[in-house]
Structures are given as structure tokens and as C-alpha cells.
## 1
Amino acid sequence: MTKSLNTLAAAFVAVSIGTAGLVTPAAAGGSVSISVAPANAKQEKAMRAGLGLYALYNGIRNGGIRQRGTGNSAGLVQNGTGNLGIVHQEGRGHDGTLQQNGNGNSHGLFQFGRNTSGHVAQTGNGGTGATFQFGW
């Protein structure tokens, strides 16, 4: 379990470092989106564990929406069983939806800053992923 958490932590650090060079000055106005999908079973376990820990910490069972800020809109649709869907918005003016069709899927849409728009459709069974959006 510790090794999985270490792998998940390393993945999030890598995503954070990778996005540092993509951000332009605040005056430019815009956004950047990064979608992460595991390449193998080990990475999938780590990502599912991370999303599960986030859900546990925030009292989410199968899916949930967390919003901090103003002017945000979010939606979550789940068709199937055993899915975990998370939409997390911090900032203002975000628009995001997550639709899961199938069983045993897990995905998180995380929006930060302002004025991002993200719409994720996850179909099939046993899929895992995360989408990060940063707006300025």
C-alpha cells in the first residue's frame, strides 16, 4: 500500500512539474488541460487508490461534486455500478461535467483558477483516469 501511495505521489508531482513550463503569464488569459491515464496495472492501482483516498477524506461514496468559489457549474452522471466519479472545482467561472457509462470506472475532474471548461465521458468497464485543468 505504501509503495502504491508513493507511486501516486510521484505521479502527481510529475504532473505538477510538467505543467509548470506550460503556464503563461496571467495577462494572457486562457487555460491548460492535462489528462492522465495509467499505462499499466500498477499505475492503475495507484491512481484508483489516490482517487479513493480523496473520496474517503471528503466523504464521497460513489461520486461527488466539490466546489469552492463562485460562478461554477458542475454535473455528474453515472450509468452502471461500482463507479467513482469526482468533480472538484476551486476558483471561479468553471464549467465541468463527468459522465460514466459502464461498471467499475474511476475518474476525477479537477479544475483550478478560473474559467475552465471540461467535459469527460468515460465508457466501458474498469477505466481509470484524471483530468486537471488550470485557468487564468
Note: The helical segments are 2-20, 41-57.
## 2
Amino acid sequence: MSVPSIDQLQELPPPPSSVSYWPQTWAWVWLAIVLLLLLAAWGFWRYRKWQRDRYRREALALLDELGVGARDPAHRLAALRQVPVVVKRVALSMPDGAAAAPLSGADWQAFLQARSPAALPADLGRQLTLLAYAPDARVASMDEQEVHDLLSACRRWIEVHRVAA
């Protein structure tokens, strides 16, 4: 009797797949379709929100540039003079922004606070007016902490203000 050799062994074929990848009932197909539609609707909603907030992103980028310019003594005055312009442009870009055009002083502060869920500094409107209309020497003499706080308050307002649809 001969001893079998290892060369005579043959690989066994894999067993047939016992689990189908296709859903067993149509309810799973419909559930997958509904989930895909919900995901597509959510993606469309996020895209529209992203488009609507384009003005915020642009204003925040401009505010960042002004913050860098405010740290440079050669560009400090010009950068600080532009801060109230940016905030006013953001307010004017809102659907009810035409109401913001003639505002100043306490009315401007009330407009800003009414559209912000976060508390703003009580003198933000006054500081923006100071930047826009004060003599150059007064604006240039603002200390770094005051400028930083003002830019932070403006950034916070731009990020979180509510827009009436």
C-alpha cells in the first residue's frame, strides 16, 4: 500500500455564499431610499446655509485682515477706520438691513443687540462711532487691549447675529 503524498492534495472550492447581500424584504429597500433622501435633503440644506453665510465668512476674513493691520503701526489708523464700515456692511446685507442705514448712537447699539443672542458690550456702538468719526490722534492712541476687545466683540456679533428670513 502506498502512502499518499502531499502533492496529491487538492484545494477545496469555497462554499457558496449563504447570505444574500440583497435586502430580504422591500421594506429595507424603502428604508434605504428614505434614508438616502433624508441625507440628500440635509446636504442640500447645509449647502444653502453655507451659501447664505458667505457674507459672514467674507466679513470675518476682512475683520481678520483689519486685526493684522491694526497691529502694524503703519496701517493701524486705516485698519481701525474700516472696522465700523465692515460691521455696517454686514448689517446692511441683512434682509432688514435698510433699517440700519440711518442708525447711530443708542439706536445703533439697540439694533446690534437686538440681533445678537450673545450679550454685546454696552458701549459697542459708541466705540464704533469713535472709530468712524474721532480725530486721527484719538483713534491711533487706543491701547491694544481696547482694540482687541472691540475686534472680538465685532467678530462675535458677525458670527452669531440672527438674520430675519
Note: The chain has a mean pLDDT of 89.
## 3
Amino acid sequence: MTATFDSVLAGLVSPGLFSWRGRADRDLVGEARAAGWQALALDTRQVTSFEGFYDEVATAWELPEWFGRNLDALFDVLGDLAQRPTLIVWDGLHELGDIDPVRTSAVVDLLRDASEQATALVVIVRDGLDVSEFDGLL
């Protein structure tokens, strides 16, 4: 499936996990917020351990101290976030995959599953890593 970012924000594209193929400097989070979406950034380019991934999620998304740092807790958080149209823009998938490709693939699969179950959860990954097959391209 190929879509444009504007069609995602207009609600013309089903929720899903997408690989970004546009300009690297485009402010996707800012545009989504301006369109009334809840928009969250996740930057794992400087993460040096998989535990650091969960720390980055907790910090970037302002999660409470008691956030469980595991896949089940992440899935629950995504379900809570997706109560309204939500965009997540992830930079650094490639770097995380270099640290732990198996667990990174599990996160990608979880993001895909969560977006398929939500009414309006869109995840855009800015870099490509063949840890799992993506749903489409933007």
C-alpha cells in the first residue's frame, strides 16, 4: 500500500505501520499536531541497550514511573494512547536493530498489531531495517 502523509492525516488511510520515504527533515509530528492528532516522537538513534529503548519510550511519551519495560506494557500503553487519533514517528529503528534484531523485530510486530487493532494509530518509521515486513510506504 502506498499513501501520502496528507492522506493519513485526513483519515483516508487505514491505521498501520509505515516506512517513511519522504524528506528526512519534514516535521511529521508538528504537522500531525496541527491537524489535531496526538503526535509522539521516538528517537532511539542514541540508545545503547534494549533496556534503553524502554527508557526512551517512557521519557519521550511522558509515561509514569511504574511503566513496565516489556512488550505487554508497551502494547497496553499503545492501546491507551490510541483512544484518539495518534501518530508515532520513530527515528532509530536501524540502530536498535543493530543492538538486538530479534527484540527489535518483536517491537515492530507489536506496533503493527497495535495499529491494526486501533481505530486511529499510525506508526511511521523513518529508516528501514528488514527486521520485519512493513505494511506500506509513504
Note: Residues 5-137 form a domain with the Barnase; Chain D fold (CATH 3.30.370.10).
## 4
Amino acid sequence: MTTIDSRAAAESLARSAVDARVAACAQVSGPIHSTYWWEGTVENAEEWCVVFKTTRERYPALEQHIREHHSYDVPEVVLMPILAGNPGYLSWISEETR
């Protein structure tokens, strides 16, 4: 999962990750309102959230892809494990990220 500063940037990042097969799917939602510390002050920003579907094995490549294609100096890149799910869907994720 990551956040980014515009819908166009979110959609571009989502598409490039799926095209590179580091994610089987990427979902863009937003806008969301973020409040955070940055360089000693509290900032507010409108952002879009991108949730990527990938495997544990492909995560390092996805993280590298996000870091290389993201506009932020320190992009949010968070891994949340899938603890359970539809076996067919999980298989599809694996097949599409080979």
C-alpha cells in the first residue's frame, strides 16, 4: 500500500506496477485527507491510496518499483499480509505476478 499526491499519479503507478507484473491488481481510492509530520511541522494533504495485490516473493520487486516511480522523497510502502482468502483468488495473484 502507498499514498500519492494526485489521482493521475496514483493511476500511473498502479498501471506501471501491474504492467511490470510486480502486482496482479492495484486499486486506487481517494481522495483521502492526510495529516502528518514532515520536516518538523504538521502538514495536511489530499492524497490517493493505492493498494497492490502481490505475493510475498514479489514484494521486494514491488517495493523497488514503487520507490523508483514515486514522486515523494520518502514514499509510504507498507506490507500487510493476507492471512486467509479465496484460494482461487490467491492462486490468481500468484499466476499473474510470475
Note: The longest helix spans residues 7-19.
